[in-house]
Structure prediction request, 546 residues.
Amino acid sequence: MKYDISAFPKGIALLRNSLLNKDTAFTDEEREAFGLEGLIPPRVVTQETQLMRVKENLNRKTSDIEKYIFLTSLQDRNEALFTRLVMENLEELLPIIYTPTVGKACLEYAHIYRRPRGFYFATKYKGKFRKILDNWPYKDVRIIVVTDGERILGLGDLGANGMGIPIGKLSLYTVCGGIHPAYCLPVVIDVGTENDELLKDPLYIGMQHRRWRGEKYYKLIDEFMCAVKDKYPHVLVQFEDFGNENAFVLLERYREHMCTFNDDIQGTAAVALGGILSALRITNKPLKDQKFLFMGAGEAGLGIGNLIVEALKQEGLKEEEAKLRCWFFDSKGLIVKGRKGLNPRKSKFAHEHPNVPDFVEAIKKLKPTAIIGVCGQKGAFNEQVLKTMAKINERPIIFALSNPTEKSECTAYEAYFYTKGKAIFASGSPFPPVDCMGKTFHPGQGNNVYVFPGIGLAAVGFMIKKIPDLFFLEAAKILSKQVSEEDLKVGRVYPSLSKIRSVSLEIACRVSEIAYELNLCKLPRPKSIKDHLKSLMYDPRYEVYV
Prediction:
């Protein structure tokens, strides 16, 4: 491809442009054309040689947070090299650029801050959101990941320090879904924080006041959504790590009017359901014969329950029958009819049953085939819980989905050891293989990265108007189909991360087909949906500019 080099920055400005910079891989012709001679070492090297160098330097780092800082600096300098490095070492580096290390990075974000990245809409800019949005240098944004920092993973209110989450998620859109980094905009809406440590921290980067609440808060979010819709009319907005109440309210507020979804509610649900469908290929029992008991009834758990209900309705169950397959246990015990103070989302899953304050007792009485942990409490699935599940099920399904690792309801080792290898296990954070009962188990990680990049690729590829729940239901089915028989034999209910781009492409194709059936695409249908999507996927190998 030939470029109009007159539009390129020159000299140091080009070397500081992370989207165009190739560092020492600029050819002699490019160096002369762009005024780079003398500014970089004279030898021209390949991207492969650069990969050797950055991998060597990465391996010298002695902690995960140091590796995170190194990779962030590489991304700030050279997007293509960063992307290729992560793509070719995804199993190793995914836990560094996202969970669990991103949680530690957010806790320390103000203290490890190096260079600005992303966009901050703060309370001090109220009334100016549309104007300041013009300060973003890229004019064709297709995907925004936004947080207000109130519920970062299982770590609580981290305010503006939550910027690590949208940055990390958008890196995964590029690495796993092929979305060009120029299309990606990470956003924090800084409405303050209730975190007293941050409010007192002289290095904190955000607004040092208490969180805005109520109508004032919602008007600020409205201003943000109106600004991005006006500036980028085809953009997908992904809500990430909002507080439970706001997460549901904002999803319902915008989902019919904009292309938007909440990954904690809908993305988590699709990944969990995909893992469940894979697990049922091991048990050889249909979804309609399962009973699910959730530990935790926040946005993740309720999102999973709602999607399971939709899947059961597709299998022929009536809604009330489907809801009876899902039971929830929260901090006050089993959620049952007659309990006072239940919000409408929990009330949907409140069934006729005596109150049960103890989780093990709830298992004994309800006899679930699967327990799903979304409570963020380490050890919630203790020895007694796991042994009880193994006693009443030949192959109990144990999903400990809370992040980061230290919040997981149980470890992979505990799940396999206390069930004597009977458990079908998945977790939110990665765990190493486990030797148990003479067999090596490879636990699956129920990471949302299996779903949201495919949804995003479809939205970008065909300018989809809105994101219905059906997209996530179909994504779960496609995800399950990507799990091989070899995966299932070692207990893995998710495909290898080495297949992630092909998984994303398959999900994007199915979502796009449904979008055309529902008349949700702004672009005319191409001859081949797959070929069109493949043509859009970002290749991080260097291009020749001259």
